[in-house]
Amino acid sequence: MQSPAPMPDNAQWRKSTRSDQGENCVELWRSSDQAAVRDSKNAAGSALNLPTSALDSLLEIVTK
What we know:
Layout: E1 14-15, E2 26-30, E3 34-39, E4 48-51, H1 52-62
Protein name: DUF397 domain-containing protein
Organism: Actinophytocola algeriensis
Domain DUF397: 11-61
């Protein structure tokens, strides 16, 4: 398995519109071929990096 390419320094992270004010949510970044998910409370921490196809599958499952 290949390691994902590093995210750009200017990556635009998005937070769910369903987030509460307590910061109990995740943030998402995606490009045409890769994506990342991170905890909004620890933005400087690690992120889950995955191909966009895997993210699309995950989102399909959790939004059902």
